[in-house]
Amino acid sequence: AQSVSQHNHHVILSEAASLELGCNYSYGGTVNLFWYVQYPGQHLQLLLKYFSGDPLVKGIKGFEAEFIKSKFSFNLRKPSVQWSDTAEYFCAVKPERNFGNEKLTFGTGTRLTIIP
Amino acid sequence: DAGITQSPRYKITETGRQVTLMCHQTWSHSYMFWYRQDLGHGLRLIYYSAAADITDKGEVPDGYVVSRSKTENFPLTLESATRSQTSVYFCASSGRLEETQYFGPGTRLLVL
């Protein structure tokens, strides 16, 4: 079964700083990768996803992520964060083909706090 | 476009009581999912359903029961609530298993 690691539990940045949140997964086959965001008091929303093709994917609100297959990573980046980016960010992975009970697996999340 | 809704949004109950959380989606998505969100654990899958009358266990199914008599509804029942089931519960749906899942607003459950 697959697993996802988000090593940064809580990240605090000032506005305009650059952001990179780490996400590493373990799975032997081809995967689909997702980043979800949960703003305070709200439900999860899809930020971006990678299924195939260009490993650099762009999402909403200026976020992007790069899939590096050799490192089993899918790090989330934003060049200049805003106060409104304060939220919890979840990386998720899913095998491209399901042969058993493999479904979407989430990381434990990274809380991002932006200081004005 | 209502999307995916959950009710109630907040619920307080007592240990031993039966509680049902409702989930409704208007997209005619085949797949529906129930997750619980707990600090330090992220989201964990409780049950999922591939279609009406087809359900399967996820990572943490103990103490929960689901049914799917209609495509659009996927209720989650706690047969005898325990304090460890205090959590935020999210319902999600997708057209196919490999597609993006869309989440509902969540139900915050407190078991006293």
Characterization of this structure:
The complex is a heterodimer of chains A (116) and B (112). Chain A contains no helices and 12 strands. Chain A has 116 residues and is mainly β. In chain A, the strands form 3 sheets. In chain A, strands 2, 5, 6, 10, 11 and 12 form a 6-stranded mixed β-sheet that branches. A 4-stranded antiparallel β-sheet of chain A has the order 3-9-8-7, with no helix packed on it. Chain A is globular and about 40 Å long. Chain A starts with a strand and ends with a strand. With 112 residues, chain B is mainly beta. Chain B is built from no helices and 11 strands. In chain B, a hairpin with a 7-residue loop joins strand 9 (87-94) and strand 10. The chains are: A mainly beta (116), B mainly beta (112). The interface between A and B is medium-sized, with 23 and 23 residues.
How far from one another are the termini of chain A? 41 Å
Let me know the average pLDDT of chain B: 92
Globular, elongated, flat, extended or rod-shaped: what is the shape of chain B?
A: globular
**SSE series of chain A:** EEEEEEEEEEEE
The major sheet of chain B is characterized as: 7 strands, mixed
Order of helices and strands of chain B: EEEEEEEEEEE
- The coarse silhouette of chain A is globular
Q: What is the multimeric organization of the chains shown?
A: heterodimer
How widely separated are the two ends of chain B? 36 Å
Tell me the strand percentage band of chain B.
over 45%
Largest sheet of chain A: 6 strands, mixed
User: Given the structure, what is the number of helices of chain B?
Assistant: 0
Report the radius of gyration of chain B as a whole number of Å. Answer: 13 Å
Helical amount of chain A: under 10%
Total count of strands of chain B = 11
Most extensive protein-chain contact, per-chain counts: A-B, 23 and 23 residues
Share of helical residues of chain B: under 10%
Structure class of chain A: mainly beta
Number of helices of chain A: 0
